[in-house]
Each structure stands twice: as C-alpha cells, then as structure tokens.
Design goal:
The chain has 115 residues and is an all-beta fold. A hairpin with a 6-residue loop joins strand 4 (34-39) and strand 5. Strands 2, 4, 5, 6, 9, 10 and 11 form a 7-stranded mixed sheet that branches. The protein has a 4-stranded antiparallel sheet with strand order 1-3-8-7, with no helix packed on it. Helix content is 0%, strand content 51%.
Length: 115
Amino acid sequence: QVQLVESGGGLVQPGGSLRLSCTASGFTFRTFAMRWYRQAPGNERELVAGISPAGGRTNYGDSVKGRFTISRDNPKNTVYLQMNSLKPDDTAVYYCNTHLGTDYWGQGTQVTVSS
C-alpha cells in the first residue's frame, strides 16, 4: 500500500533552517508529482511546494518563495523540503502528498519556529 513517511521537523529559532524528508513506498515514485503542504492550528491546509516527477519543474506558495526549496531523489524514493530563513508564521504541521487517483498523505511532521 502507499506510504509516505515524513521526518526532519523540530524546534528552530527565527532565521534558522530545517530540511524535511518524505520517503515513499507502495507506488512507482519516479512517475508521480509530489507536494508539501502545511497546516497551522485554526488554518486550512495550504500548498507549500510541488515538484514534477523528474524534478524539472517546481512551484511554490507565495509565502515561501525564495526561502524554501523542494527537491527529490528518485532512486531513494524521497522528496525533500529545504527551509531557510524560517519565520514564526512557518510554524505548522508539514505533510507530504501525492495524488494517485486519490490523495495520499503522510502522518505529518511538526515544525515550530520560536525563540
């Protein structure tokens, strides 16, 4: 079955960096786009970044452009989210996502940006 497992979250000070990872299994990873979403308490889930199957095309939410970078390693079935210049507003649970006829989600990883 499809599984998405996120890791790499934690507590970081404003201006700091984190790299999230999402390891996938149960489907042919290299043929599907992957996305990162986030959800803060009281807010709707929002798209953070997306990447095409081969990694040649990416897109970002307006609030993270220029600070976050999505990438993927297809032989490792892993997608990454490098987050730099983190702000308190980036505090959220971050989810990995793919769409294979229906949406699949990981369990999420908490990112907290606070001094």
